[in-house]
Amino acid sequence: MTASDRAPANPATPASQGEIDTSFRFYELSLLGDLHGEVAARRPVVNSFVEGADRAEGEPIGDGWPRDARLCLESKEKRRLEGAIRAYGPLVMGEVIGTTCNSLIAGPKLKELIERHCPGVPIEFLPLSIYKSKDAKRPLPGTYWFVHPVGFHDCIDLEKSSILWDDDHRQPLRIREMVIAARRGAAAPQLFRPLHAWSRYIIRYDLAKAIKDADLDNVVWQKLAVSGLPAA
Q1: SS3 label, residue 84
Q2: Could you read off the pLDDT tens digit of each residue along the chain, which spans 232 residues?
Q3: Of 34, 40, 134, nearest in space to 87 by CA
Q4: Phi and psi of 146, rounded to 5°?
Q5: Is 110 in contact with 95 (CB distance < 8 Å)?
Q6: Which of 54, 118, 192, 202 is the most buried (most CB within 10 A)?
Q7: How far is 170 from 149, CA to CA, in rounded Å?
Q8: Which pTM value belongs to this model?
Q9: Residue 185 in domain
Q10: Domain count, the chain
Q11: Rounded to whole angstroms, how far apart are CA atoms 189 and 155?
């Protein structure tokens, strides 16, 4: 499902008509993008991170970012993509490049919207190129960045969420179904990564609406449940 299909409700709709205040709407971005249909089949999906790059959790990594940072398709994905192109038509890139390595890879339009809606927020935009294989001499078309929010926001309601805990029930191992605590979430920026689930990217209403209005290709999200909403 695309961003257009997941469109946020009209911001002018009052909460008294059954809509949640826009301050308390949160959406989890799909880092894989849209996986359904012939167009999706012609998009590359990257299964490994930039070689030689640091993945320090929550810390700035720009100083050590490789000058010629590249993402390379694995041989199985290269064969799959080439088969889809032969069957359905030319390569399709999009504003998000799907990855299985917990990374948001954004094109220039999405990058510009994030920058516009997150002024002063510590987010690194680290440039990279995408290659069909490690031996390829030329990158695939398009300009892309790894979007790396620095730090995390403590806004998950651990009591309401569905969680796989460690044996001592002290540390969450995996958040199966995430619920955002309204008051703590309201203090987060328009794009952030939550504490206890640092590999997941959350956007808020204003940025989601801007993405929807811009009709960006291959940007997909899922609405999150919210706890502790103030009374209407």
Answers
A1: helix
A2: 444 444 444 343 333 335 678 999 999 999 999 999 999 999 999 999 998 888 767 899 999 999 999 999 999 999 999 999 999 999 999 999 999 999 999 999 999 999 999 999 999 999 999 999 999 999 999 999 999 999 999 999 999 999 898 888 888 888 999 999 999 999 999 999 999 999 999 999 999 999 999 999 999 999 999 999 987 6
A3: 40
A4: -85, 120
A5: yes
A6: 202
A7: 25
A8: 0.89
A9: yes
A10: 1
A11: 12
| Tokens 């088969």 found at | 83
For the record, the structure tokens of 30 come out as 């799909």
Whether 8 is covered by a domain: the verdict is: no
Distance CA 42, CA 140 (A): 13
**Residue 86 located in a structural domain:** yes
Place of tokens 């971005």: 29
Q: At CB < 8 A and 24+ separation, what contacts does 197-202 make?
A: 197/156, 197/172, 198/57, 198/58, 198/152, 199/102, 200/28, 200/29, 200/102, 200/175, 201/28, 201/29, 201/31, 201/104, 201/147, 201/149, 202/26, 202/27, 202/28, 202/29
Residue 13 lies in a domain: no
